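Observation: inputs received (chain + 2'-O-acetyl adenosine-5-diphosphoribose).
Thought: call the complex predictor directly.
Action: predict_structure
Action Input:
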Amino acid sequence: MSSKYQNILILTGAGISAESGLATFRSSNGLWNNHRVEDVATIEGFQRNPALVHDFYNDLKKEIQKAKPNPAHLAITKLQKEYPAANISVVTQNVDTLHEKAGNKNVYHIHGQINQAVCLNCGHILETFGDVDTETICPHCEVMGMMKPNIVFFGENLLYMDKVEPLLRQCGLFISIGTSGVVYPAAGFVQTAKYYGADTIEFTLETTNNNYLFDKHVYGKAGETFPQYVEQLIKG
Ligand code: OAD
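Observation:
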């Protein structure tokens, strides 16, 4: 079987995890609702009150640990197993671990990962689903109180961009699932992919900010619409 696309890039946002029970950012009961973004998602907020920031992400970590992947995450695994492309990558803005739990491969967490903390003293990355707080000691440099949740805060550089940029240029198909297209640079990825010739399609519940950059739009719950699309793609 020959495939139409040799390289596929799937960009995901909070909407793909909504059906797993995790809040998106900009819905009425959104993740930031009880907190100011400045307090829990900026380096200044972290310096001002690290205990508050740790508490926020420790609570989120517990929520995320309970969540299970939904049919949209599982459809990515199916696509990666059954569609004969050379490369199908997942670039996610989500800090949850549902892509991994679903068995997705080639996942790049450009906004960081909830199950990691980074030492601001030595750069060591600690993998943990346990609580991290102001008294956590870095297992590498043994300094206390320098661990930060490995979440990309506003104003910080995205992770893995050296890997993601070539993927954006190479992909023949760019799929976006559950992201509002508000937060750059991720919101601009579709533009790069399109410039280099990719077909572009988005799966979303509501109109997105950058919808004019997509060739096709599929409205509805990704857990319902995306598995159907994967079946069609595999059938060719
Ligand atoms: P948003 O909350 O901004 O957008 C979620 C998108 O998912 C919206 O377009 C919804 O219409 C759509 N959606 C919701 N439920 C859905 C479902 N069941 N099926 C399909 N689509 C659905 O979340 P993001 O775009 O991920 O950054 O937000 C981007 C970044 O903003 C986040 O990574 C975060 C935040 O600031 C950082 O923390 C650095």
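Thought: report the result.
Final Answer: The longest strand covers residues 112-119. Residues 39 and 48 are 8 Å apart (CA to CA).
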